[in-house]
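Fold Annotation — chain and its backbone
Encoding — discrete vocabulary of local shapes
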Amino acid sequence: MLTAWASCKKSTVDPPLTYTDYYPVDVGHWVIYDMDSTVYDAFLNGADTNYHYQIKEVIADVFKDNTGQTTYRIERFKRQADTDPWLISDVWYANRFDDRLERVEENLRYVRLQFPPRKNHSWDGNAMNTLETWNYRYTAVHQSYTVGTFDFDSTVTVQQVDEANLIEEKSVEEVYALHVGMVRKTYRVLDKEVDGTIKGGLDYTMTLLDWSE
């Protein structure tokens, strides 16, 4: 039996778990992230702009889509600081199957997880969209992991891409904890000159701040 625990949260005795608990879909479940990002503007010779804000994702509803699949509506909110009101920014969707998790983000469908998680198991996370192939891979499975003040007993790490050459750098990774969902994401996709100067791209980190129990 797998268990998960985080410091600063009340410890409870959990029922037997399944691997799909790495992405909870209970209506009302929410997660808050701290977002730090740098945008490199390709039209301004790579001039960089830094942004800091918070993101909240809420499983707001569940329904059957036009193919009869159980679909979860994810409402995403943003705010600049703790004292600011949440403002809705996006509506995304998720389908959680026995063997995989799909998320529709900005009208693109991704296969974010496959079940059961096995170390070094790989799959094309972009198989259901028109983007280039990214071979996702589990680099850590059922491992302890610390995010800020939270210590989790069981997490999985998905390396979505890790490529670099003289003119490109692509490195994207997500970490999921049981009963919580994604707890950390690092995203770095850059275009460069041959001397290493950044021409354009995006570099951000999402870090767990809080979640519903």
